[in-house]
């Protein structure tokens, strides 16, 4: 029995959602199509009904992952009224929860180095995602300051995941947050 277009669309979205989480959790190279489809509750055979290649699903998973993180940070910034916009962004990004759940977090902190080695379509999707994340971070800063804030935050999250214990990990997140707040102006925008 054939699926309706709506069912096929839901299945494809389910695969993209599972792919976004699985790639962030396990890495690109380590994720096989069998594992990706199992995470979506499907068999490998159905993959090629929706995607031509692993690269295609990865490119779409990048967009999906960035949309989710941007929405989460955007909601946190809008809901909180205290602190500068930069403080609110950092409060949403530099958290132990974000550190502990790469499958739901920032794609760049989870698999950034792998993305840089992928094909053109994946790098293009990642570049678009980078611009979207810079927009989220920019808030009331210059673009250059947003690049610094995002770069330091991605690096802090990566290092916090590598730290030898929870105390050292949390210290990395706190120190980077404090340094960014002390050194980046957050009360102006680009002209």
Notes on the structure:
The chain has 191 residues and is mostly helical. It has a domain of 130 residues: Tetracycline Repressor, domain 2 (Orthogonal Bundle). The chain has nine helices and no strands. Helix 3 runs parallel beside helix 7 and helix 7 packs across helix 8. The N and C termini lie far apart (58 Å). The model has no long low-confidence stretch (mean pLDDT 93).
Short description:
By secondary structure, this protein is an all-alpha fold. It is built from nine helices and no strands.
What are the SSEs and their pairings?
Elements: H1 5-26, H2 33-39, H3 54-79, H4 85-93, H5 96-100, H6 107-115, H7 120-138, H8 143-162, H9 166-183
Cα(first) to Cα(last) distance is: 58 Å
Structural class comes to: mainly alpha
CATH arch. level architecture of the domain at 54-183: Orthogonal Bundle
The run of helices and strands is HHHHHHHHH
Overall geometric form = elongated
Unreliable parts? none
CATH superfamily of the domain at 54-183: Tetracycline Repressor, domain 2
Tell me the number of strands. Answer: 0
**CATH hierarchy, class of the domain at 54-183:** Mainly Alpha
Organism: Massilia orientalis
Protein name: TetR/AcrR family transcriptional regulator
List keywords for this structure.
single chain
